[in-house]
Amino acid sequence: MSEVLLSVRGLEVAYGGIRAVKGVDMEVRAGEKVCLIGSNGAGKTTVLKAVTGLLPVQAGQVSLMGQATTSLGAWDLVQRGLVMVPEGRGVFARMSILENLQMGAHVRRDAQIASDLERVWSLFPRLAERKTQLAGTLSGGEQQMLAMGRALMSRPRVLLLDEPSMGLSPVMVDKIFEVIDLVSREGVTLLLVEQNASRALQMSDRAYVMESGVISASGPAGQLLHDTQVREAYLGH
After folding, report:
1. What does the H/E/C string look like for the chain?
2. How do residues 155-180 score in pLDDT, each as one tens digit?
3. pTM score
4. What is 31-52+71-234's CATH superfamily?
C-alpha cells in the first residue's frame, strides 16, 4: 500500500462550548482522491480548517507524512506541502490575477516558478487573457479558477478543496472537476469536501461520510455511491 500522507486521529474541535468535531479518524494515502461528504453543518469544513492549522485542535492528532502538525501554523504546513483551496475562494480582491498567483508561490525559492505559472495559464486560459485584471472583479467561476491556480503555485503534495463547485454554473463545474482530475493524475494527493456528493463519489477512490461531527461511514467511493442509506441521504434517491 502507498504511504499515508495525511493522518487524522481522534480529532476534536470546539467553538466555545460547542463540540463541532467529535473524535474524527481519517487518512489519505499518496496518490489518492478522497472525498468527505455530509450535510451542511456536519463539520466538514471545520475538519479541513483544523487540519490546515486555521483552527485550534482541542484533542487528537493530525500528522503530515508521519510528523505531527498540531503545533504548527498554516504557514508551516504550506511549506511542508499541505495546501487548501478554501470555501468561498478567498482571493485577494484588490490584487491582480497575476499577483494572486505570485502570492501562491511566496514560500518557494526554486527556479520552476515561471514554468509553473505557464502551467496555470494553460489550465485556465481565461485567467491568462486577463492577468492584469483585479481578482475582485472576476465572476465566481473565474475566482474559483484563480483560487485553484494560486494553490497549485505552491506545488502542494496534498491539496484540500473545500466546496469547489459551490455556486457555479454546470459548465464551470465540469471545468473545475476536469482540472481536479488532471491535477490528481499528475501526482497530487487530494482531499475533497463537496456538496455535489454524487460527483465527488464518482471521481474519488475512497470516501468518508460525516454526520453531526462524527464519521458515520467510510469505504471505497464506488461502494458508497451505491449504498442505499447514502443514496437516500445525500444523492436524492
Report:
1. CCCEEEEEEEEEEEECCEEEEEEEEEEEECCCEEEEEECCCCCHHHHHHHHCCCCCCCEEEEEECCEECCCCCHHHHHHCCEEEECCCCCCCCCCEHHHHHHHHCCCCCCCCHHHHHHHHHHHCHHHHHCCCCEHHHCCHHHHHHHHHHHHHCCCCCEEEEECCCCCCCHHHHHHHHHHHHHHHHCCCEEEEECCCHHHHHHHCCEEEEEECCEEEEEEEHHHHHCCHHHHHHHCCC
2. 999 999 999 999 889 999 999 999 99
3. 0.92
4. P-loop containing nucleotide triphosphate hydrolases (3.40.50.300)
